[in-house]
Amino acid sequence: MISLLICSSNVMGKEIKRDPDTGMIRVLYIGTPFQAFSPYPFFRIDPLLSTTPISGLAWLEPEIVVRALRLYLPRTRNDYTKYDVIGLDDASFEHFPPNTLVWMRDTVLDDGLGFFMGGGSGSFGGAHGYPSYADTPLQDIMPVYCLPENNGFSINTVIEFDDEFIKSIPWEEYKNHNVFGFYNVVVLRDGAVKLSELRAMTGGGADPGWTWWDIGEGRFFASPTGFRGSVGAGTTSAGVSFIYWKHYPDFVSNMVYFLAGLTPPSDTQLLYTTRLRFREVDYHRQMIVGTMEFISRFGASSNRVDEKLAEAEDVLSRARGFFVDLDLANSLEEADQAILLLREADELALRAKQTALFWVYAIEWLAVTATLLLCGVVLWSLMVRRRLYREVSATRMKPM
């Protein structure tokens, strides 16, 4: 029955899912949001995405995962319809509340949500003791069958360059970043689109890489390689080289756009440049906030910095608005203006920091100098003027 719900996006297309009030794509991301090697930092910066992060990585302590799921996971089926795209990134379902996977499946089929799954020990067929999704409701909507198998270092080769999603990404330099250290072995289902193939570096046949299909009213994207990068194994570690690819942010953001039914602008270079500006904006803001937190400990005034930040925030708000409307040229122009204002705010913050530190150094110098002078006076009085004792001219032996 599920197979009857499959439809081709090239023929029927998919209804666009966006927040009717803001125009943003609402994403529920369960995985590794607070680690450096994760797609979440790029989701957070993308002006078109409004992302709710939940720590659900298979390797996290169960107490952390259970607490995060209890606090932030939607509690009813209707709550899931308040999102446009759901993502599981190496997230095991063993700690999910009852009915969670059923609600996820049903909102994809009936409400048109997009869904993506990133590979790992807790994904697809599972590994290292984590359970498989093969016997769960999510298997009904996956473009692949889950197998209890995984493979090591492999090369992921794109094979379908005419696909709508693949065409939205500049693939320059990708061949320098296509080595992964782990992937879940899956089997392609009839009607699914295979975008890439994985070949183990030890030899053997090809396995499905990135795949997708339209199912019911929704869309599912499967990435057996995952989206994270592990640390410490050099350039060939799992995802590290991929996540350092210059167009990695374009890949993960455009994937979410695609799952929401939104076609990214055709000018891929302009889209890349505009996103890069927003990352620069985020970098400058974090630097300024860090400096202001430092100087606030010394009671220094930050009024001028606050005023400049407010001015930059107004410009940045316009830049985000243009981006949501996919007016990239105006968005880039406003983002450039915001960066100039943030640089001015950064200079003001540094001056305030220098002023605060000047008085810190001055007080410290005065305290040290005063202590030195006091010690000098005491030593001079005792050793030179000898005020506490006098030299005698003669001594007498006291009789016993």
Model description:
The protein has ten helices and 14 strands. The chain is an alpha/beta fold and 400 residues long. It has two domains: 258 residues, Rossmann fold; 90 residues, no CATH class.
Briefly say what this structure is:
This protein has 400 residues and is of the alpha/beta class. It is built from ten helices and 14 strands. It has two domains: 2-259, Rossmann fold (3-Layer(aba) Sandwich), CATH 3.40.50; 268-357, no CATH class.
Given this structure, which CATH class of the largest domain is correct?
Answer: Alpha Beta
Structural class: alpha/beta
Contiguous uncertain segments of 5+ residues: 1-12, 229-239
**Gyration radius, rounded:** 30 Å
What is the CATH topology of the largest domain?
A: Rossmann fold
| Count of folded domains | 2
- Count of helix runs: 10
Residue-averaged pLDDT, rounded?
87
**How many strand units?**
14
Q: For the report, how would you describe the main beta sheet?
A: 8 strands, mixed
Task: Give the helix level as a range of percent.
Answer: 40-55%
State the order of secondary-structure elements, H for helix, E for strand. EEHEHHEHEEEHEEEEEEEHHHHH
Strand portion? 15-25%
Identify the CATH homologous superfamily of the largest domain: Class I glutamine amidotransferase (GATase) domain
N→C terminal distance: 122 Å
Envelope shape: elongated
The CATH architecture category of the largest domain equals 3-Layer(aba) Sandwich
